Known about the structure:
By secondary structure, the chain is an alpha+beta fold. It has 18 helices and 18 strands. The radius of gyration is 21 Å and the shape is globular.
Amino acid sequence: GQSAEAQWLELFDRFKVDGSYPRVLETFASCLYRAHLFPRETHEYDVHGQPKHRSFYSGKVMNGVSVTDNGFWDTYRTVYPWYNLFLPSRSSIAIQGWIAALEEGGWFPQWASPGYRACMVGTHIDAVIADAVVKGTQGFDAELALRGMLKHSSTVGDDDGAYGRLGIENYLRLGYVAEETVEGSVARSLDYAYDDFCISQVCTSLGKAEEAKRLLASAQNYRKLYDPEVGFMRARHLDGSWAKFSEFEWGGPYVEGGAWQSSWAVQHDPQGLIELNGGSAAFVDKLKAMLVTEPRFEIGHYGFEIHEMTEMAQSHFGQYAHSNQPVHHALYLFGEAGQQEVAHPYLHRVMRELYTPTHLPGDEDNGEMCCWFLWSALGLFPLCPGKPEYVHGAPALEYAKIQLETGAELFIESEGWGPRQSIVKERSVNGKPVTDFHIAHAEVAQGLTIQTKY
């Protein structure tokens, strides 16, 4: 096979970018490298060229591919959508490896490092697989994958959270995880609702209408946690009453954030979230408030200042804590409320101020932090992994020509951008003016030209 150097050069050669700001180009190159480091492939090939691996789950030598080192809470957001558009063969291998883990250990991993590890919340392998299925990535057994997804959506898993969903008993009975039962109750509840949406998409794809209907209903459970009196997602007790609340306290019912960072986690139904917040105008005001509210934090159950708190306070973006994942889609929600132009200066500030060729805003997180920059620099974003679409942003590159694995080419062209002009005034796709915030994956995947004027 090819040497590692040849494989990297072949990958990089497919991305040709240019622009007036060298630092943006250098950062793009750095992020492009880091975006493709995970998950690690740990299989080897026998004399017949067939993949084999020693299982991290059974300890036995098995046929097929093996992958590890991935935290799905992070990577589902931008990394796997990146692969599904630009490198679907990589996504296919990864999902084959995760299905192998399911077969060898009985469950999908929560965080593979290298085997089961209890870390973070949600079962976001659901989003990883759903995004691949709805975008047409081939080469894995979707029926088998769905069995594993349905299992952890309805069955009690590991007591420590290495697989399955902690608090699943509450969630199935009440529609939320109760505050007094499991730490991170709000974050878990919101993630389970979103993950159920993702499983429903796979069910629909495979013709399982009844399961899809049930899971789509479950995906609306996020509504049970919104408290209009405080304007945030809030923890509830077993009896349905609201739990103690502090808008600046981190941890407790939230994970690596507080109410300001965690209340946007409804990627699958942004219009429903907007409705809960009082409509588009009120929702836009809430997003703006996040960006200017003093970056206060209370250490809560952590008992000390974790680095994500420090990074938020140092970044000068109010409560918008880009150093961690919960807010990574939040700026794109302006577009869902009909005011995408409000986000453009903020998107450029994040790219310009928080990313450099040698520094990232926070943990690299298996390439997720870097993929946020790559998507945003191109002016596209996977707002909801599991839906076959992207949303438009505000490109920081003047030119990009990207060759997809199919041979189709994606062209990004923009003119007029600079630190003093960062609001998109005109956008066209294949020469036709567009105002729609969304663009279908199928349209992008067949190759097109997106032109932007600032």
